[in-house]
């Protein structure tokens, strides 16, 4: 579909790429990876034709169309959301007008035998065929499905595009791109402005898409779920791995070890050859051998190894001062801005040491609640109270905008540091990879990732016991995100984090608060537990909605035949007492039914595995406890000394583990019952 042939891109005599070649085939799912500055975004620009190569070229077949989403782009502000999105169907709209014009001409003409009349008929037929191919009849449904999938509400459809924030405007451009259905998507950080639900929807869309996809992303879960091939750009060369991102990381490490071994062997040989040349350069009897070695060195193709950044982002938050048990308490809290209602009736408690995530669609109130916690805003109703002796460190989503661009990196920390910590500012900056002349750079020239690291460094200057982090991983590369996550896991204070990065939240938080439809709901467990529960709940909501629609249809007219495998639980095959036919749900397409059933089956299998594993763990613990019961009943017979209390401590710890595991087993059984009910809907 697209062929990159011996591509070279140079800037001022320096080669960004040199003689790169690869193919993009139909239905490829490619992740483009490499260090910051390796040229990933430039490669996408070359593929679109925006950036001309210095040599080599990019060729594509005549039928190939490209949809390109850059990280930053201008968006229109002159119309409504729906009208702007409909512009993606420009060709369809033009065809619609031409079909109407041709139809009118054919209606009024009477020269049925003329060549002109025949030409009109042929053109009308061609237009209708093209209209069908482009999905003209489904235009409204496709627009609605795409906008809803990307997180817009139906009430947004008539809003002016100028009313939306920058992140939402980027979603509008993404919606237009998806609706054009090009042969190849080129996406540069498409998840930057999406929430978790929208990211999952985009994942499903791209996996099922009939064309090819090339994407750049720092979201590991997104890359793993979408891509099947990884192209790494390093040292101006491209290396092709036919695997998703996580597997690529493993293969790259193996390949690097092999390269390093070859590099070290070559360096040793070069050193020995240079030593020979230096020792015998001026001895006439060795002149031929010296010249031979010199030529040998000139012919060697030097092995290059990309310098690995071994500097560690040593984020270690200061020990948290002890706070009260209740850190944040919300009682029937709500927030509105004028007539705009954000959320209400939020009632929950966050206790000392808990790490919780605030998730939900953009605009549902996550950042608003974070600002209520730090006291930057007041609730419109109810109470949001911070507990005793709570000291808050806040990382804002727009943290980089809150820093003075004319200050240097060092000054940014020096102006807020007090006491002995001022003597350690260079060490702190070094831990955040600001070394040497970097600390004298002005904030306004820093990249997004550098600003994020600098803002995080400011949080280390005081011993907070509550960290409120609003999208802390935006603009961070994968390595920095991993190190930050590790530091937060070791932190002994309380953490409230707003994030859409599933990989970052996994293993970090043990409770999720979902902001949705003006309410706040608590979910126990990690981020993937929450997503699984939401998926099951969404399926039940769909089922209830279908039932309600069927009842409404029944009451307003003749019933329809029920869809096989989609009957409500307890009503399948039964007739009401009055003899009328059972209310039927509107027919879903075979593909929709299959997708829902497949997901329900998948969740059921996982729930069964989770219950089975928990039961095995419980049996193993019970066996250990039974053994210790025997030992403590007759310690002399088992040669055990109980005087130091070690065995009792181990025994109590096992009992505590068993209690927690039994409680978890009960929760898993409830999830299993829910999954069984979901599957039963399709029987």
TrEMBL record:
Annotated CDD domains: ABCF_EF-3 (cd03221)
InterPro entries registered for this protein in UniProt: AAA+_ATPase (IPR003593), ABC_tran_C (IPR032524), ABC_tran_Xtn (IPR032781), ABC_transporter-like_ATP-bd (IPR003439), ABC_transporter-like_CS (IPR017871), ABCF_ATPase (IPR051309), P-loop_NTPase (IPR027417), Val-tRNA_synth_C_sf (IPR037118)
This protein's UniProt keywords: ATP-binding, Coiled coil, Nucleotide-binding, Repeat
Region (Disordered): 542-593
PROSITE patterns per the UniProt record, alphabetical: ABC_TRANSPORTER_1, ABC_TRANSPORTER_2
Molecular function terms, GO-annotated: ATP binding; ATP hydrolysis activity; DNA binding
Keyword Chloroplast: no
Biased composition (Low complexity): 545-556
Signal peptide bounds: none
Gene3D superfamilies referenced in this protein's UniProt entry, alphabetically: P-loop containing nucleotide triphosphate hydrolases, Valyl-tRNA synthetase, C-terminal domain
Family the entry assigns: Belongs to the ABC transporter superfamily. ABCF family. YbiT subfamily.
Protein name: Probable ATP-binding protein YbiT
């Amino acid at each position: 579909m697209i062929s990159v042939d011996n591509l070279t891109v140079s800037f001022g005599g320096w080669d960004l790429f040199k003689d790169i070649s690869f193919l993009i085939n139909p239905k490829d799912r490619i992740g483009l990876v490499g260090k910051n500055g390796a040229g990933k975004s430039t490669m996408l620009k070359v593929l679109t034709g925006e950036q001309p190569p210095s040599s080599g070229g990019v060729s594509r077949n005549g039928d190939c169309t490209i949809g390109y989403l850059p990280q930053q782009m201008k968006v229109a502000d002159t119309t409504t959301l729906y009208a702007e999105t409909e512009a993606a169907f420009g060709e369809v709209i033009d065809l619609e007008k031409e079909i109407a014009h041709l139809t009118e001409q054919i209606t009024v003409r009477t020269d049925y035998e003329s060549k002109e009349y025949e030409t009109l008929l042929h053109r009308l037929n061609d237009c209708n065929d093209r209209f069908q191919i482009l999905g003209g009849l489904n235009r409204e449904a496709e627009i609605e499905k795409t906008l809803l999938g990307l997180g817009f509400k139906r009430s947004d459809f008539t809003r002016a595009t100028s009313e939306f924030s920058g992140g939402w405007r980027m979603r509008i451009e993404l919606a237009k791109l998806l609706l054009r259905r090009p042969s190849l998507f080129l996406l540069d950080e498409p998840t930057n402005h999406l929430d978790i639900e929208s990211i999952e929807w985009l994942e499903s869309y791209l996996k099922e898409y009939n064309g090819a996809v090339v994407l750049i992303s720092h979201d590991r879960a997104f890359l793993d779920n979408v891509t099947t091939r990884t192209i790494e750009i390093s040292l101006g060369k491209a290396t092709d791995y036919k695997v998703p991102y996580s597997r690529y990381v493993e293969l790259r490490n193996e390949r690097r070890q092999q390269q390093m071994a070859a590099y070290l062997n070559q360096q040793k040989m070069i050193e020995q050859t240079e030593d020979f040349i230096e020792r015998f350069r001026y001895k006439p009897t060795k002149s031929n051998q010296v010249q031979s070695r010199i030529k040998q060195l000139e012919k060697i193709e030097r092995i290059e190894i990309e310098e690995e950044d071994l500097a560690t982002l040593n984020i270690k938050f200061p020990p948290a001062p002890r706070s009260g048990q209740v850190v944040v308490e919300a009682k029937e809290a709500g927030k509105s801005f004028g007539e705009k209602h954000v959320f209400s009736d939020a009632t929950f408690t966050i206790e000392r040491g808990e790490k919780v995530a605030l998730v939900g669609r953009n605009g549902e109130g996550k950042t608003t609640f974070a600002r209520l916690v730090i006291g930057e805003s007041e609730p419109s109703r109810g109470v949001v109270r911070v507990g005793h002796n709570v000291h808050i460190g806040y990382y804002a989503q727009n943290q980089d905008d809150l820093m003075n661009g004319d200050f240097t990196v060092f000054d940014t920390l020096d102006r807020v540091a007090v006491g002995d910590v001022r003597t350690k500012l260079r060490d702190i900056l070094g831990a955040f990879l600001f070394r040497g002349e970097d600390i004298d750079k002005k904030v306004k020239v820093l990249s997004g990732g550098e600003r994020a690291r600098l803002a995080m460094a400011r949080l280390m200057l005081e011993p907070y016991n509550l960290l409120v982090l609003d999208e802390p991983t935006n603009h961070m590369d994968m390595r920095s995100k991993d190190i930050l996550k590790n530091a937060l896991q070791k932190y002994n204070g309380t953490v409230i984090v707003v994030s859409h990065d599933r990989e970052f939240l996994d293993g970090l938080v043990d409770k999720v608060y979902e902001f949705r439809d003006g309410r706040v709901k608590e979910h126990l467990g990690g981020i993937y537990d929450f997503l699984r529960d939401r998926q099951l709940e969404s399926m039940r909501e769909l089922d209830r909605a279908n039932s309600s629609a069927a009842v409404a249809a029944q009451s307003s007219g003749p019933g329809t035949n029920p869809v096989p495998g989609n009957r409500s639980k307890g009503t399948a095959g039964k007739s009401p007492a009055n003899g009328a036919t059972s209310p039927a749900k509107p027919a879903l397409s075979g593909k929709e039914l299959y997708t829902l059933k497949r997901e329900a089956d998948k969740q059921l299998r996982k729930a069964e595995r989770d219950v089975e594993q928990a039961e095995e763990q419980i049996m193993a613990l019970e066996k250990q406890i039974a053994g210790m019961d025997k030992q403590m009943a007759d310690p002399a017979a088992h040669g055990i000394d109980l005087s130091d209390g070690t065995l009792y401590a181990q025994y109590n710890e096992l009992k505590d583990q068993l209690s927690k595991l039994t409680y978890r087993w009960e929760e898993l059984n409830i999830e299993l019952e829910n999954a069984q009910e979901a599957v039963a809907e399709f029987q």
